[in-house]
Write a structure and sequence with these properties.
Radius of gyration: 25 Å
Number of helices: 10
Strand content: under 5%
Structural class: mainly alpha
Number of strands: 0
Shape: elongated
Distance between the termini: 16 Å
Helix content: over 70%
């Protein structure tokens, strides 16, 4: 009985924390949706286009609502000793684990195609829309400035592009390393040898792979523990009923 009580209390406290975190996330999402300008003042600066087209508010509300409902489900199931709620909680966590595992397997299997798929998406945009579409241009400028890269593969992604033709056979300034006084033409861009953004992103991921792996392992451990605790409580109640 003592072990059951301890596990029950742990289950309630854990899910209360999940519920509280979900409510906070949902509240932040509502704040962004209702008054995004004041919310963004407490965060690092984002472009206006990013704020208006990447709907952070709706995403936060959705994730927060799911976390809140899941927390309430587990908390009520443990507190009321409801086998129905406990098995529902277990099933939802199990479905999430299966989905995460499937997504990981798909990502690993198709990792070799990632560059091909991203290039097919990115290159036409650089050729036809960079310098014309303000949203795409601002996002690429922010990316290239932050990562100190040029295009998807390198400066040749801009060759014969809309921007290249409109600016007299010149490339974006980020494609040329060094003083901003000289023009970023073919010779300077080739001499600078600024790498593409895809290579920079891959290097960042490789440098932080241990951190990402640790986070993934931690999340998996929490999910497995939640399933184990809920199943323990369910089996105990089932045994007690008989």
């Amino acid at each position: 009985m003592g072990c059951f009580t301890f596990v029950k209390v742990a289950m309630v406290v854990f899910n209360l924390l999940i519920c509280l975190a979900g409510m906070c996330l949902a509240a932040a999402g509502i704040w962004v949706t209702v008054d995004g300008d004041s919310f963004m003042k407490v965060l690092p600066p984002f472009t206006d286009d990013f704020q208006s087209h990447v709907n952070v508010g709706i995403f936060s509300i959705t994730i927060g609502a799911v976390m809140t409902l899941l927390g309430l489900l587990g908390c009520c199931g443990a507190q009321k000793e409801s086998k129905c709620l406990l098995i529902m909680f277990f099933s939802i966590i199990l479905i999430i684990c299966i989905a995460e595992t499937a997504a990981t397997i798909v990502a690993l299997v198709y990792s070799s195609y990632t560059e091909i798929i991203l290039r097919a998406w990115a290159t036409p945009g650089l050729k036809e829309q960079y310098g014309k579409d303000k949203i795409l241009t601002d996002l690429w400028n922010s990316t290239m400035t932050t990562l100190q890269c040029c295009g998807f593969s390198n400066y040749t992604d801009f060759s014969e592009s809309y921007y290249y033709k409109k600016n007299g056979a010149l490339y974006p300034p980020t494609c040329c390393a060094g003083p901003e006084l000289f023009l970023c033409d073919d010779d300077n861009a080739d001499f600078s040898g600024v790498v593409g953004c895809f290579k920079q992103i891959v290097q960042i991921i490789q440098r932080n792979v241990n951190i990402m792996g640790g986070i993934a392992a931690g999340v998996t451990a929490i999910e497995v523990a939640a399933m184990g605790v809920s199943m323990y409580l369910y089996c105990y109640l089932e045994k007690k009923a008989t």
